[in-house]
Every structure is written in C-alpha cells, then in structure tokens.
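Workshop exercise sheet. Pairs work together: one partner reads the sequence aloud, the other fills in the structure field after running the prediction. Swap roles for the next sheet.
Pair: D.N. / O.F.
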Amino acid sequence: MPRFFLCHLKILPAVPRLFVVLSLLLSAGVLAGCCGAVSCDCQDERDDALFFRYSTDTTGTGTGFRAAEVDTVVVVRYVHPDDATTAGNDTVRLVRPRATAAATPVIIDNATPFAVRSGRKLSAYRYALLLPGRQRLRPVQRDTISGIELQGKLDSDGCCTCYQNTTKSLLVNRQRVDAHDPTSQDEPVEVELRRR
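Structure field:
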C-alpha cells in the first residue's frame, strides 16, 4: 500500500483501521474475481499460420493430384541472409497416410514444421514445397513461397487479451495470394496448389 495511505491509517483507531483494510482487500478480491472467473480461450496459436492443400481435381482441367502424389511433401526453409555464414537451409520431409494426405493441409507456422531460429517469425524466410514423386531425382512439383506479409493486433475485452491476425498475404509461385480470413474470425484460409 502507498505510504500516504498507511500514514493516515495510523491515526485511525484500531477497529475502523481493520475495517478499512478488510474493505480494501475485499474490494480487490471482488475486482480480481471478475477476470479470474473468465476463461480466456483465444485460440490464436495458428493465427499467422499458412495452410496449403494440393488440389485433387483430376477431372476436367487435370490440374489435380492423386493421393499417392501428395502423401510425401518436402518443405524447405531457405536460410535467412543474416544466418548465411553459420547455417544452411532447413529441410523437413512430411510423410502422411495416403488415405488422408489429400485432405490434410501442409501447415507452415512460426514453430511448425521448423523450430524457431533467432526469434524470427515465419515471414522472415522463403520456402519451397516439393512433391518428390517416386523417382526422387526430380520433384513432380515445386511451389515457392516468398514475400510473406503478416500483421496483427492485440484485442482486449478487459479481462482477456488475444492476438488477431489482420493481414496475411504471400507470393505463391510469384503470384500474390491473400490468405487472411475475410470474416476476421481467424479461421484457416487454405491456399490451393494445382499441378503446373
């Protein structure tokens, strides 16, 4: 408690002083209880995440993929220029069950599928998604992801403060794509990758 307040408490008789202190503690408890009883379920772990799904439309345009072609995806994170002398590119091979591969998006987030390096967010890097195919000498498809732009804000209602993504765009094969949820509910917006 501030000194000023304590000094004034000394001149009060003992019983009223106890009443004042208990009243202040009770008030603080009641005010803290307002937010203490609120569960903050922000669900903002994946607000900045990028979601990619391979097209399975093999009829008509022929730009889709078969499940056997998308069950294994190689994700490359290109080294940040500041790390070029100390580290190489990061590579992860995602092997997914063939039955669910076409329905399961490939997710790139700040800590998925790569660990955070030097505190940089996913927008500090360029990426490539490769479908290795069966021959493994030359990928069936290579999609490049660059120019990632992420912006967000902290939204507060008095008790809870949650992060909300406000801008999410990227270049996919040099084409600008807006991956921000137009409803601002932070729902995933999947970028569809087609055969080229």
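Discussion prompt: The helical segments are 3-10, 14-36, 67-70, 98-101. What would you look at next?
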